[in-house]
Fold Pseudouridine synthase.
Amino acid sequence: MPEFSLTAPVLHDYSSVTDQLTAWHVPKSWRFWLRKHQGVTVNGEYRYGNLPVHAGETIQLNLSAADPTDYVHQVHPLNIIYEDKQVLVVNKPAGIKPHPNQPGEIDTLMNWVAAYLAPNPAYITHRLDMLTSGLTLIAKDPLTQSLINQQLATKTMAREYVALVSSDIPDTGVIGAPIGHDPDDKRKRMVRADGDHAVTHYQVIARTRSTARVWLTLETGRTHQLRVHLASIGFPILGDPLYGDVHAAPRLMLHGAKLSWIKPLSNNVQTVECPAEF
């Protein structure tokens, strides 16, 4: 069973270790695990959860967890944009699946990441469509994965994209149409009244005579949300084989260009950007 150690400074006095962990948004399940296994040390010594911690002290969280998905290791170059002790951010190429769907499957991003991080495990967080390029964040331990997934759920992790559409799209807009399954094609989603709440903001950042480059910000994260929303207002992303004209561009012109998240066990915001190749 893999073991992990995360260390962080205490910046303010807290009446208890538990209060500090709560301030760091450590999930209740992990707080229980750390208490049960005496996994919290302060300045190198175990400290009970109800005892205070003080600014200037150092907390270390020692944890273990069952092995995550057993990805087949496949050595392949990665375009690493950012890396620290807890996360890895890579630029996923267009046309590459984010992860395997079947045991033993290869030629996906997580096969490459697993080989790069070996012998340590890799923990997937958010996913990009196979046809979309851009920033993908992978956690290096299960607590960091939980914290990032929590940020995705509470919208404190921001994901921003750039896309190409036809040139006559309005300068800015908000698309708030609900999204659900397309009953006629299991691969697709569609705008439908009984769908899930979904909100996309867009702004044109450049134009040519034939195309507009739009900056897209997600409030929600529905499957194919950007593709469905832009197609629903008459401006499908160029090269989209499901919601537009696949022949309008050599690929789906959608790229995850910017990620912002709160670094685990801190209040510091980390922002990473990666320009599109189109």
